[in-house]
Design brief:
The protein is 30% helix and 24% strand. By secondary structure, the protein is α/β, with parallel strands linked by helices. The structure holds hypoxanthine. Hypoxanthine binds next to strand 5, strand 8 and strand 9.
Length: 266
């Protein structure tokens, strides 16, 4: 099966109305699925090229339904480059979203903060990214479309709307540059110092390949991090995946409000 076959299967189960946006949820951020009305749940296992076994804290279902009056899809879990070394692992899921009509892609993740004032439990909207992984999901792609312009990869209009929603919702939304490390290890303190010196404000192991694929597919992209820890060496705490999952819940509630408001205005 391929993306078109996925599109057929999803339309058969969830109806033919096009979706307007797709949301990808990061570790521990699955609560927003509860807000969907008219929900159809499709296990990833029924779809071709969707994440398999995965990583604890990530869901394995595609949700189709209505949020803030808009028909959307929620991918409750993603695949990461570190799971198998395939940076393009989310290509078929994202092609499927475009095939269902999505024009907007909202990405969420858990990340480490490099800004002393931006603490765990806070949310940081991406203004830009640094791809520090040494790879790219479009390696091997043929044709001129592969030369994607990455200026304003994170859509300025969606960012402005998110800021307005944050103000209305009383969410303290910071902004910054996200640096993609391959993982699965957390960074060393020396790598964190390097990231800061290069202009990054947050570090994480996801999102950037999806942003690249989303822009390649012509989607408007918006992304936001739930800060789960300070970068390695910046605080006394020991960084762990358990801590990531626990702290993500605090930022998740803020992200849910932001996304609910944003979706209503796309
Ligand atoms: N580094 C990389 N990925 C992460 C971190 C981090 O500190 N926290 C959550 N995801």
């Amino acid at each position: 099966m391929t993306a078109p076959a996925n599109v057929t299967l999803i339309r058969d189960r969830a109806g033919k109305t096009p979706i307007e946006a797709a949301i990808v949820l990061g570790s521990g951020l699955s609560g927003i699925g509860e807000r969907l009305a008219d929900k159809t749940v499709i296990p990833y296992a029924d779809l071709d090229g969707f994440p398999g076994g995965g990583v604890s804290g990530h869901g394995r279902e595609l949700l189709i339904g209505t949020l803030s009056g808009r028909r959307i899809a929620i991918l409750t879990g993603r695949q990461h480059y570190y799971e198998h070394g395939d940076a393009a692992a989310m290509r078929i899921p994202l092609e499927t979203m475009a095939g269902l009509g999505a024009e907007t892609l909202l990405l969420t993740n858990s990340a480490g903060s490099l800004v002393p004032d931006v603490k765990p439990g806070e949310v940081m909207m991406l203004t830009d990214h640094i791809n520090f992984s040494g790879t790219n999901p479009l390696i091997g792609e043929q044709g001129d479309a592969r030369f994607v312009n990455m200026v304003d990869a994170y859509d300025p209009g969606l960012r402005d709307t998110a800021k307005a929603v944050a103000t209305e919702e009383g969410v303290d939304l910071s902004e910054g540059v996200y640096m993609w490390f391959s993982g699965p290890t957390f960074e060393t303190p020396a790598e964190i110092r390097l990231a800061i010196s290069l202009g990054a404000h947050a570090v994480g192991m996801s999102t950037v390949p999806e942003t690249i694929l989303g822009r390649f597919l012509g989607l408007k992209v918006w992304a936001c991090s739930s800060i789960t820890n300070m970068g390695a060496g910046m605080a006394a705490e020991t960084i762990s995946h358990t801590q990531t999952k626990q702290m993500a819940l605090i930022g998740a509630e803020k992200l849910e409000r932001l996304i609910t408001g944003l979706v209503g205005r796309i």
